[in-house]
User: Fold this.
Amino acid sequence: MKHNIAVLLSGNGSNLQAIIDKNIDVSFVVSNNPKALGLKIAQNANIPSYSWKNVLELEEEVLKLIIEYDIKLLVLAGYMRLLSQNFVNSLPSKFIVNVHPSLLPNYKGMNAIKQAIDDCAEYTGVTIHYVDEGMDSGSIIKQDSIKINKNDTVETLKARLQTMEHRLYSDIIKSILIKN
Ligand code: GAR
Assistant:
C-alpha cells in the first residue's frame, strides 16, 4: 500500500523502524543530524535519506521534497528541533504529526521522561499530536498512560514508553492515511 509519508528524525530511529516494520511506505527520511542512526535504518530499507545540519536550510529542502514526492503526511519521529512558524504555516493544517514521551500538556520539550521522574509523577505516557507553531502544543490525537514504578530510571521507563510508541504511532499513522 503506497502511503507517501516522510519522516524527520534526529536520533536512533526506533520509531522509524517500527513504521517500516508495519509496512507503511516511507518516501524519504530527513535528519538534522548526519550521524543519526535513523539514517542508517532508512538506508538499510532502501529509503532515500537526506541530512542538513542547518535547520532553516533543512526546512527549505523538506518543503521542496514534500512537493517532489507528493507527501500526504509528515511524521516527526524523535526530531529534536522546533519547526519554524514559516515552515508549519507553509503546510496544510493536520499535515504534521509528532510523538512525545509524556502525557501532554505535562512535561513538554526536552527530557520529558526525566521531568516526569523528577516530578515524582505517578503516571506518565505517550502523546501523539498534530504539530502547530508551538512547542508540543498541537491538538492531541491519542494518549496512552503507564504507571511509573518507584525503582524506574530514565532508561527503564523509556524502554516501556518506546514499546507503547512503536505500537501506537504506527496505528495512528495508518488510521490518518486511511481517512485521507
Ligand atoms: C521518542 O521516544 C520520542 O517520543 C521522543 O524522542 C524519541 C525518539 O526515539 N521525542 C521527543 O521527545 C520529541 N519532543 P527514536 O529515535 O528511537 O524513534
Observations:
- Residues 20 and 26 are 7 Å apart (CA to CA).
- The first strand starts at residue 5 and ends at 9.
- Strands lie at 5-9, 26-31, 49-51, 73-76, 96-100, 123-130, 140-147.
